[in-house]
Amino acid sequence: MIFVPIGVDCDVAYLLNKYNFRKMSLPFDWNVSYTGVAKCIDSDFNEYTAPLNESRVNKYNVYFHHDFEFQSLLIVDKEKYARRCDRLLNILKENNETSGEHIMFIRKGHLCRHHDEQGAAYSDIMKDICEAECLDNILLNKYPNLKYKIILILGCTKCFNQDTTYKSNSENIEIYNCIHDDEARGKLFEECLFNVCNSSNT
Questions:
Q1: What is the DSSP secondary-structure string of 57-68?
Q2: Over the stretch 145-198, which tens digit does the pLDDT of each residue have?
Q3: Distance of alpha carbon 95 from its chain centroid, rounded?
Q4: CA 26 → CA 47, 117, 165, distances in Å?
Q5: DSSP label of 191
Q6: Is the separation of the CB atoms in 174 and 105 below 8 Å?
Q7: Would the pLDDT of 23 be above 70?
Q8: Residue 15: CB partners within 8 Å, gap ≥ 6?
């Protein structure tokens, strides 16, 4: 099983690392992907790191929170992300051609605070389920033999209800409800992610 973090922020990569599920660096590990993950993969990450606006956000609405801050490191940062993008594309291509390892894409759904970041520029961030379904359609078309799951763990109390079971029509998408009003949400998210990854690895 290959685990691929796809946002919304670095929490997924951090927890995969904490529990030794993360084996490599990939494009969405340490940034904030408000939207656009599906478009990145559909375009083979074309112009993923250029041009960036003054807030270090690319044309796919991915915010490079930890990178591209210093002029002296721009080339290093670009090369780093080029390697990560190539690595993920090679994983998808190779496992599509060989029907090899299963891929698990994991996304932490947006939280209330993400509505207000970047000057509230990303109002469509609330479409977590639609974005997952868009990614599913792109993967089906580009990599028809790929064996994968998309895990979406919801968390925003503004957009989703704590007591509602959310489902997708796609058998490739699993949605988990970790919506909670207080600090317990972080613990719920961590437990959910660990249980999903651990069960898929056994």
A1: B-TTSEE-TTSS
A2: 999 999 999 988 888 988 899 999 999 999 999 988 767 788 899 999 999 999
A3: 19
A4: 16, 24, 30
A5: H
A6: no
A7: yes
A8: 190, 193, 194
In the chain, how many domains are there?
1
**Nearest one of 16, 40, 15, 39 to 27, comparing CA atoms:** 40
Radius of gyration of the chain (CA): 16
Answer yes or no: are the C-beta atoms of 138 and 38 closer than 8 Å. yes
CA distance 147 to 102: 5
Q: Per the structure block, which two tokens stand in for 131?
A: 């974005």
Q: What is the residue range of 23's domain?
A: 2-200
User: Phi and psi dihedrals of 63, rounded to 5?
Assistant: -100, 120
CA quadruple 21, 30, 130, 176: dihedral positive or negative? positive
pLDDT confidence of residue 133: 96
Q: Which pTM value belongs to this model?
A: 0.93
